[in-house]
């Protein structure tokens, strides 16, 4: 388990806490592996009935650690990030997310696979995939148009527009909007406790039925997005965009047609 993933157990609740605050909880390959390991183990552990994913009261996650990402890029379905995606997407038990501060890239798209999402009013969510010359991931190209309609999804995925926790609640990405990060963490924990009081098999069956009409298509889309994403990493556009990001400059796409 990565030192930057804190695993906390308490009476049926497994909390996976992102703990790399000096880097705004930016996710590394080791962190993805740790999250995947924890979810895979929890799937078969009857003592775990609910999972909560959280950061701190000030920061959920800034998304991928770009330097680590470039040093250890995903290459196929067994890469840590794709293992994490599959584990969360197919997890049969309720998952609660607590989001405060920045939630960038996968920090936003993973919320589409959680069951209860609590977000602070001033959280800052963003999916800047095209801005990095990449493409949407984790089923966002499928789920967001279904949830928001094409026009609004295009603003978020084609332009990479940021949005607030308040907007996430209004648009249905989050179920509850709280005043601040501390209140968000507390409410998410309370929501998890409420789920723990319910019949676990009834929860699992209900979650399965809710996802049954589209889960096969979602898995197909996630695989296709992953294949395209991996391919784009070596394109000249992506090399320019990611280099510009690490060099803290604006990318120049004028030479690309």
Automatic annotation (TrEMBL):
<protein>
    <submittedName>
        <fullName>Enoyl-CoA hydratase</fullName>
    </submittedName>
</protein>
<dbReference type="InterPro" id="IPR001753">
    <property type="entry name" value="Enoyl-CoA_hydra/iso"/>
</dbReference>
<dbReference type="Pfam" id="PF00378">
    <property type="entry name" value="ECH_1"/>
</dbReference>
<keyword id="KW-0413">Isomerase</keyword>
<dbReference type="InterPro" id="IPR051053">
    <property type="entry name" value="ECH/Chromodomain_protein"/>
</dbReference>
<dbReference type="InterPro" id="IPR029045">
    <property type="entry name" value="ClpP/crotonase-like_dom_sf"/>
</dbReference>
<keyword id="KW-0576">Peroxisome</keyword>
């Amino acid at each position: 388990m990565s030192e930057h993933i804190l695993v906390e157990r308490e009476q049926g609740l497994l909390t996976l806490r992102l703990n790399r605050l000096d880097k705004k909880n930016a996710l590394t390959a080791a962190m993805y592996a740790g999250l995947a390991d924890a979810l895979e183990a929890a799937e078969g552990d009857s003592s775990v009935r609910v999972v909560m994913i959280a950061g701190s009261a000030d920061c959920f996650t800034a998304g991928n650690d770009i330097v680590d990402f470039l040093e250890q890029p995903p290459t196929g379905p067994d890469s840590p990030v794709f293992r994490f995606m599959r584990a969360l997407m197919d997890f049969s038990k309720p998952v609660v997310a607590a989001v405060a501060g920045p939630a960038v890239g996968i920090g936003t798209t993973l919320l589409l696979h959680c069951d209860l999402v609590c977000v602070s009013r001033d959280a800052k969510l963003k999916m800047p995939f095209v801005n990095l010359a990449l493409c949407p991931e984790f089923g966002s190209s499928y789920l967001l148009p279904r949830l928001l309609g094409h026009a609004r999804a295009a603003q978020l995925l084609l332009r990479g527009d940021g949005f607030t926790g308040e907007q996430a609640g209004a648009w249905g990405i989050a179920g509850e909007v709280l005043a601040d990060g501390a209140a968000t963490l507390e409410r998410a924990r309370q929501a998890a406790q409420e789920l723990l009081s319910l019949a676990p098999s009834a929860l699992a069956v209900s979650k399965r039925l809710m996802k049954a009409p589209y889960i096969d298509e979602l898995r197909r889309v996630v695989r296709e997005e992953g294949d395209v994403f991996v391919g784009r990493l070596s394109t000249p556009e992506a090399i320019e965009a990611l280099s510009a990001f690490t060099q803290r400059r604006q990318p120049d796409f004028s030479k690309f047609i």
